[in-house]
C-alpha cells in the first residue's frame, strides 16, 4: 500500500470560552471534535458541511495556522505537530492555502509582482532576475498575462484576483493545496473558469487538493472522495459517486435533498430538517445529529456512534449501520 | 390569465458619479402577474438589485429613475415620497439578503414587527401584537410570544430570515420583493425558507419577485424568469422553456456552467472573459465579447428583445432573420 500524502488522526480543536471576573475558562467550543482521514497523493478530497461544522478549522490545522488541541497530522509520514516553528515554515513550502475571499487575502498596497515574489523570498530564491521570471511564468500558468505584474489587486475582477491567489499558492511548487471555499465568492460563469483552472493545474503539476466548500455541486465536480462534516465530526466519507448516489448517513441524505437543482423535471422527495444546528459549545450527547435526525433512535441520544467502514472505502458514523 | 400587479416599462436607472452618469439598468420591460413568482436572474453587477430598489423607491440620493413603474394603476416612478411611504411595507414589501443588517439591533423583534401595522393599519398596540404573534407562528417560529421580546442577535440566521418574512407579510402585501433571500443561509436552512415562501405564495395572494443568482432556486420557485446581463433583459421565458430550451447564448452558458450534483462531467463549460462592470457600455450586444456565436453584426447593432413563442422573448441576433421578418426559432448548444 502506498503511504498517503496526509494522514489525520483524531484531530481536535477546542476553543476556550473565557468568562467571569478573572477571565477563567468557563466552557469550550468544540469546533473540531475528533476527525480522522487520509489524503492520497494526486487526489482531491472534498470537505462539505454547513457553516460552523469545523471544515475550515480542520483545513487550518493541517497547515498549523491553528494549533490543534489534540490529535496527529502526518505529512509524507512525518508528524508535523512535533516540528518547531522554523521547521514548520520550511514544511509549508509543500503545503499551501487558497482562501475564500480574494479581496481580503491580497495586500491592497502590494503589486501583483510583490505578492507573488514574497513566498519565493521566504523560501529562499535570492536571485532577483529568476524571481521575475518565475512571477511571469506563474501569471501565465493561471491564465493572466505578464503585464499584469505591475498592477494592484483592486485593478482586477474577483475571478482574476482568485487566479492571483492560486498563483501565489503555486509559487513554491507545493505538493498539497488546501483550498478553503475558493469559488464561493465568485459568479457562476467565473466559478466554472476557476474550477477548470484548478483541475488543469492538478494534472499539470501533480497536485493534491483538500477542497473545502459548502456547495455540494462544486464539491462533487472537483472531488475524488468527499467527507461530510456536522458539528465538528466527519459523519460520512466515501468516493464522490458513491456518496452522492447512495448516501448512508441521514444528515448526508437531508443535505443532498435540500440542494435546489437547476432542472425543472426533477421532482424530489425533500427531507426538511427541523430547527438549526446546535451550538458547538454545548453539542448534544451521543450522536451530535440526533436532535434533528428523522430516524433517531433511543440509543442515538446516549452513545456516540463509531466512524466505521461499511463498504470498501465508505465510512459512516451512524447507529443505523452498526 | 391573471392581470399584472406590477408593470415596468422602459425602466432606466442611472447613478451620478464623479466619472459622470453610470447607467446600471438600461431600458427594461417586465411585469409581475398577481400571485405568481417571477425570478430575476443574473450575475453581480447585472442590475437586478438596482431594479428592485428602483421599484421600491429606495435608491440612494445619486440614483435617478426614468420610465414607468406602474403598480395597481399608480406610477411609482413619479409618486410623491408620501405616497411611496404608504405603499412601502404595506402593499409592496421587501426582504433582503442579510437579515442581520436589515433588522435594527437595538429594538426587540416585537417592536419592529408591529411598527408597520401601527403606521399603515392604524392598529392599537395590543391588536398589532396579537397579529404579530400569529404571523410569527405562520412562518414556523416556535415560542412566538417570547420571541417578541428577543433582540435580533439572539436568533440564528434562519430564524432572522423568518422574522424578516413575517415582517414583510405583516400587512399582507400584493407584491413581495425578495432580494437573494437565501444566499446567506446554509442549504438545509435555505430549503426551509424556500418551502415557507412557496407555502405563503400559495396560501396568500402575494406575488413574489425573486431576485437571485442561483439557477437551482429559480427552477424550484419561479413560474416565469427574466435573465439580465449588463443592465438589460436578454431573455424572458416561463421556467420550463428557460431550462429545457434556453435561447440566449448567455442563458445557455449560465445553465451549463453550474456543476451538476447528479453526475460528474470531466470538464465544466465556462463562459470566457469577465462580467462587465456596470456602466461599461459598448456598442452592439453587451454579451458579444464573451459570446461564442458572436457575428460581425453583434458588435455594431444592439438587438431588440424579440418574441419567439408566446411566453419566450430573447435579445439576440441569432434569432432575427434579415430585415423585418421577425424571429426565427432555432436551437443552439
UniProtKB/TrEMBL annotation, chain A:
One of its GO terms (molecular function) is ATP hydrolysis activity. It comes from the Bacteria. Pfam families: ABC_tran, oligo_HPY. Keywords: ATP-binding, Nucleotide-binding, Transport. The keyword Endoplasmic reticulum does not apply. Signal peptide: none annotated. Belongs to the ABC transporter superfamily. This is Oligopeptide/dipeptide ABC transporter ATPase. It comes from Fictibacillus macauensis ZFHKF-1.
UniProtKB/TrEMBL annotation, chain B:
One of its GO terms (cellular component) is plasma membrane. Gene3D superfamilies: P-loop containing nucleotide triphosphate hydrolases. SUPFAM superfamilies: P-loop containing nucleoside triphosphate hydrolases (SSF52540). It holds the Pfam family ABC_tran. One of its GO terms (molecular function) is ATP hydrolysis activity. Signal peptide: none annotated. It is found in: Cell membrane. Coiled coil: none annotated. It comes from the Bacteria. Residues 9-255 form the ABC transporter domain. GO terms for biological process: peptide transport. Keywords: ATP-binding, Cell membrane, Membrane, Nucleotide-binding, Transport. It is a peripheral membrane protein. Belongs to the ABC transporter superfamily. This is Oligopeptide/dipeptide ABC transporter ATPase. It comes from Fictibacillus macauensis ZFHKF-1. The lineage of its organism: Bacteria, Bacillati, Bacillota, Bacilli, Bacillales.
Amino acid at each position: 500500500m502506498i503511504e498517503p500524502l496526509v494522514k489525520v488522526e483524531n484531530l481536535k480543536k477546542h476553543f476556550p470560552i473565557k468568562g467571569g471576573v478573572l477571565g477563567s475558562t468557563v466552557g469550550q467550543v468544540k469546533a473540531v471534535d475528533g476527525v480522522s482521514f487520509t489524503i492520497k497523493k494526486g487526489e482531491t478530497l472534498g470537505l462539505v458541511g454547513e457553516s460552523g461544522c469545523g471544515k475550515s478549522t480542520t483545513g487550518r490545522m493541517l497547515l498549523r495556522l491553528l494549533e490543534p488541541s489534540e490529535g496527529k497530522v502526518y505529512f509524507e509520514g512525518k508528524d508535523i505537530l512535533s516540528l518547531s516553528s522554523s521547521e514548520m515554515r520550511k514544511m509549508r513550502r509543500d503545503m499551501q492555502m487558497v482562501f475564500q475571499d480574494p479581496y481580503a487575502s491580497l495586500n491592497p498596497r502590494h503589486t501583483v509582482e510583490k505578492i507573488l515574489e514574497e513566498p519565493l523570498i521566504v523560501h529562499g530564491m535570492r536571485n532577483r532576475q529568476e524571481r521575475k521570471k518565475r512571477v511571469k511564468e506563474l501569471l501565465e500558468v493561471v491564465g493572466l498575462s505578464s503585464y499584469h505584474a505591475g498592477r494592484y489587486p483592486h485593478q482586477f475582477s474577483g475571478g482574476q484576483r482568485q487566479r492571483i491567489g492560486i498563483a501565489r499558492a503555486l509559487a513554491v511548487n507545493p505538493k498539497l493545496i488546501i483550498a478553503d471555499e475558493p469559488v464561493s465568492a465568485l459568479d457562476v460563469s467565473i466559478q466554472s473558469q476557476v474550477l477548470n483552472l484548478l483541475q488543469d493545474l492538478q494534472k499539470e503539476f501533480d497536485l493534491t487538493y483538500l477542497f473545502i466548500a459548502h456547495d455540494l455541486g462544486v464539491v462533487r465536480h472537483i472531488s475524488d472522495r468527499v467527507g461530510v462534516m456536522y458539528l465538528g465530526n466527519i459523519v460520512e466519507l466515501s468516493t464522490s459517486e458513491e456518496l452522492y448516489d447512495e448516501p448512508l448517513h441521514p444528515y448526508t441524505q437531508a443535505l443532498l435533498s435540500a440542494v435546489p437543482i437547476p432542472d425543472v423535471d426533477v421532482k424530489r422527495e425533500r427531507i426538511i430538517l427541523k430547527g438549526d444546528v446546535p451550538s458547538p459549545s454545548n453539542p448534544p450527547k451521543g450522536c451530535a445529529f440526533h436532535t434533528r435526525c428523522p430516524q433517531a433512535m433511543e440509543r442515538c441520544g446516549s452513545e456516540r456512534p463509531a466512524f466505521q467502514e461499511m463498504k470498501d472505502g465508505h465510512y459512516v458514523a451512524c447507529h443505523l449501520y452498526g | 390569465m391573471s392581470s399584472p400587479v406590477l408593470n415596468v416599462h422602459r425602466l432606466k436607472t442611472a447613478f451620478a458619479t464623479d466619472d459622470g452618469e453610470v447607467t446600471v439598468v438600461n431600458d427594461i420591460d417586465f411585469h409581475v402577474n398577481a400571485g405568481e413568482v417571477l425570478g430575476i436572474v443574473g450575475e453581480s453587477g447585472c442590475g437586478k438589485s438596482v431594479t428592485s430598489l428602483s421599484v421600491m423607491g429606495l435608491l440612494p440620493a445619486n440614483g435617478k429613475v426614468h420610465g414607468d413603474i406602474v403598480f395597481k394603476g399608480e406610477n411609482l416612478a413619479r409618486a410623491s415620497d408620501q405616497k411611496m411611504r404608504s405603499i412601502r411595507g404595506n402593499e409592496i414589501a421587501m426582504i433582503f439578503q442579510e437579515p442581520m443588517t436589515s433588522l435594527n439591533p437595538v429594538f426587540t423583534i416585537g417592536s419592529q414587527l408591529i411598527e408597520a401595522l401601527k403606521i399603515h393599519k392604524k392598529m392599537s398596540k395590543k391588536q398589532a401584537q396579537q397579529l404579530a404573534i400569529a404571523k410569527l407562528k405562520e412562518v414556523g417560529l416556535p415560542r412566538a410570544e417570547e420571541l417578541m421580546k428577543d433582540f435580533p442577535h439572539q436568533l440564528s440566521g434562519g430564524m432572522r430570515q423568518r422574522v424578516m418574512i413575517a415582517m414583510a407579510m405583516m400587512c399582507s402585501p400584493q407584491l413581495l420583493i425578495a432580494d437573494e433571500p437565501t444566499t446567506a443561509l446554509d442549504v438545509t436552512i435555505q430549503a426551509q425558507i424556500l418551502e415557507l415562501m412557496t407555502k405563503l405564495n400559495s396560501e396568500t395572494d402575494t406575488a413574489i419577485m425573486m431576485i437571485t443568482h442561483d439557477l437551482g432556486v429559480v427552477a424550484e420557485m419561479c413560474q416565469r424568469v427574466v435573465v439580465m446581463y449588463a443592465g438589460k433583459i436578454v431573455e424572458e421565458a416561463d421556467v420550463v422553456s428557460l431550462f429545457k430550451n434556453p435561447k440566449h447564448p448567455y442563458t445557455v452558458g449560465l445553465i451549463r456552467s453550474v456543476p451538476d450534483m447528479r453526475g460528474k462531467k470531466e470538464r465544466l463549460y465556462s463562459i470566457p472573459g469577465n462580467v462587465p462592470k456596470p456602466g461599461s457600455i459598448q456598442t452592439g450586444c453587451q454579451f458579444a465579447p464573451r459570446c461564442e456565436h458572436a457575428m460581425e453584426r453583434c458588435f455594431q447593432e444592439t438587438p431588440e428583445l424579440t418574441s419567439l413563442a408566446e411566453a419566450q422573448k430573447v435579445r439576440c441576433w441569432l434569432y432575427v432573420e434579415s430585415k423585418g421578418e421577425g424571429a426565427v426559432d432555432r436551437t443552439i448548444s
